[in-house]
Input
Amino acid sequence: MKKSEKYAIGMIAIIVISALGAWFGGVLTQFGFPAPSFQQGGNNNNYVPTDQEKEDYRAGIGRWNVYETVADSLDPATVRTSATNYKLYWYSRVGGTGDWSYLETGNNKYVSLTPVDAGYLWVVIDIPSGQAFYVDYQKILKQNKGYVETYQYVDVDGDGVKSFAFKYNMKGHGIPNSGYPSITFLGFILTYDASFTGLNDLANDTAIGTATNTVYYDYYASFAASKKAIAVRKIEVKVTTTDETKIKLKKLNVPGMGYLDGSVFDQSFTATDIRWTYTITNNFDNALYLQLPANSQNRFDMTLGLEYTLASSDDILVTVTVYYLVAQTEAGTSFSDTFYAQE
Output
């Protein structure tokens, strides 16, 4: 072998050894080549926690391998796509309630918790722009029972947009003999019905009479398709008279809540009408999520009861309006129906 060839081979060996050393040492992480011990699915099984580290893990302290899976609440076999249909972030908070500290994004990642985090990891879910989904925070609480202790609807990163954040208890989980311990967060989202059918169309009531009597109207709401949902925030009944002796709201059947007495509605007057309003919420938190599972009756009864004491020739327009929230944007929209109540 020529001297020049030996020199070339030696230089190549030095370069390869240097590159491997930089890789294993983590120097190349900033260039997109993390060391094997920090890669997903790397040499983590070679890590063997000490007895002290196991005690720390039981208190929720240490390095964790975190997983997430997010499915459609009304179609559990359909797993939604991370970073497309939703975004999931991992946070910590000093004392479990302090400032938000971003840790990681997405599935199969590694996060580290310290004693100041009080043994809690926070999981934040956002719906990206243009995606027609709601975060099903109620089902998330139910399915992660024993781990998710509570939630907040809060602006995590100061961008003026609120997100659902779930407080995940990291204490008392199983600790493997080798490799980092792991947890899996079970997320659920609801598909928004952008073409919600709304209320059925009622005919005018033309023969009420002048005697005091209560009339019930067979209203119901329905969806355009199954496996979808809407987030109801407010319901209003409006009548085109300012004389409250002529007409009173007695009852309204609200799906998922049952019959609400007219006395629980806020009554207001304008120059031309009387309005009864029942406000559930103004945002996604605590909204009434109407849902149509597969193979279910597409009918949500909203029977309306009105008490009349009409005078001769009275002709009053009655309008029932249901206000709900558009998925992701939280913008308001509504559906309604009208009929005339005539003596």
User: Anything to note?
Assistant: The chain has three domains: 1-39, 40-190, 198-342. Residues 198-342 form a domain with the Immunoglobulin-like fold (CATH 2.60.40.2310). Residues 1-8, 20-43 have pLDDT under 50 and may be disordered.
